[in-house]
Each structure stands twice: as C-alpha cells, then as structure tokens.
Amino acid sequence: MVNETEDTHVPQGPATATQPRISFLRRYGVACLIMLLTLGGFCVLSVGWIVIHGVSARDTPTVLEETMARALRHLAVPTKERRRVNPVPPTTEALAEGMAHWADHCASCHGNDGRGHTEMGRNMYPKAPDMTLQKTQGLSDGELYAIIKNGVRLTGMPAWGSPGSAEDPQTWKLVLFIRHLRNMTPKELDQMKGMNPVSPMAREEQREADDFLNGIDAPEPSTPSHNPSHTGTSRKENP
Length: 239
Ligand code: HEC
Hints:
The protein has 239 residues and is an all-alpha fold. It has a domain at 63-193: Cytochrome c-like domain (Cytochrome Bc1 Complex, Chain D, domain 2, Orthogonal Bundle), CATH 1.10.760.10. The chain is 56% helix and 0% strand. Heme C (HEC) binds at residues 73, 105-106, 108-110, 120, 124, 126, 128-129, 131, 135-136, 144, 147-148, 152, 155-158, 160, 174, 178.
C-alpha cells in the first residue's frame, strides 16, 4: 500500500536525464525569447533614433540616458574612493588657490559660478551641469575628486592633475571650491574675471575698444601676439 504512492513519484527509465532540461526550456524559454526580442527592439529603436535625429551636440540627453550615465559613473568609482573625505582643510588660502585654478582651467566650460552657462558648456553633449544644484553637491568629496582626476569618458570632461594614484592636493582644493560655489559673492566673481584666460585676439579687441573709448582714434595696426598667456595677468582695464 505504502509503495504504490511512492512509485508514482519515481522518474522512470531514460526520461530522468532529459526531463530537467525540458522543464527548464519550458519554464524559461519564452522568457529568454521575450528578453532577446526586447533587447533587439531596443537596439533597432536606438539606431533608428540616432539616424533620424543625427548626432548633434546641441540636443539635451534624455532623462533615461542621463540617469543611466550617472549611475554607471557612480558605480565606476570604487566604494573606498567614494568614501574619502577631503583631506585639505578649508582655509582661506586653499580656497583661494582652488578658485584661481578653477578660473584658469575649468571656467571655460563650467563658468566662474559653476552653472555651466558658457558657450562651450551649453553646447556639449552632455552639457556642463549646474554644479550649484544638489545633483553635484550631493556627490561625495571622493567622487568629485575621482571625476576631476580621471575625467568622464565620452563627455567633454577631461582628466586633470597627475595620472595614477598619486595624491593630488590641487584637485582636493578644486573640490573645496566646488563646495563653495553656492556661496559665491559678487566680489569673488569679479575677482575671477581677472583670472580667466584671454586669447591674444580678445586682448587686442579689448585694447582697441579701450583706445576708442579713450578718444584715441587711430589705433595702431594689430600685431599678432605670440604670447598665448594663460596666467590671466595684464588684462582688460576699465576705461
Ligand atoms: C571642455 C569642457 C570642460 C572643462 C574645461 C572642464 N569640464 Fe568638468 N565637465 C564637463 C562636462 C561636459 C561635464 C558633464 C559630464 C557628465 O555628465 O558626466 C563635466 C562634469 C564635471 C563634474 C561632475 C559634475 C556632475 O554633477 O556630474 C565635475 C566635478 C567637474 N566637471 C569638474 C571640473 C573641474 C574641476 C574642471 C577644471 C579643472 C573641469 N571640470 C573642466 C566639461 C568640462
């Protein structure tokens, strides 16, 4: 009596080896097919979208693109690095150095105020972000440091400072400055204008404009300068 019920559950003969495989296919085969079709459809749609819309950098990335790119960038920074706290104390000198460095190297895309309202920053794909917003301010010190030091692939954000794992105090000072962006004063913004790099052509134009305003009506012919100064010294003076 007892054996009768047990027998019905014992797999019989050669079916023992193939049965699990069949049941796996039955159970997951349809799901795998749906996944493959979805993936294929997604690829076709993406290619179609690019072909129709072109590859202009003027567009703004979709929310999906931005979310995925930021999530991947986040995951690409190891947790240990992400947890690092800025080792440079926020002294006036350190902040001033960070500010000068920013004005010289970063402001062309990010703007002196970090809002990205520059010709380059606005016309990139992705755009230079408004760094006063929580999206940036919510990143840890370590993540900001890693982004500055390594840059961000497939965006306009270059890698800065020395390569490798050597500690980079200048980069930490830039992190200090990014934390200060929300509290920038008009006086500081004015100071930074004097530190932004100026091309020889822009300097010449400024000189001609100054001469005109000062009543010097026969400006000397422009001689091209061979000193592409990036130090921000000898700059436009107000009439
Ligand atoms: C040629 C343009 C360009 C220059 C110059 C530049 N950046 Fe960027 N930066 C970008 C772009 C574009 C992004 C957006 C990248 C992204 O979406 O992942 C970015 C992103 C960042 C971010 C991440 C902010 C966030 O919320 O995603 C930080 C931090 C940053 N830059 C710091 C700097 C610093 C510091 C400098 C100067 C040493 C600098 N950048 C110079 C273009 C530039």
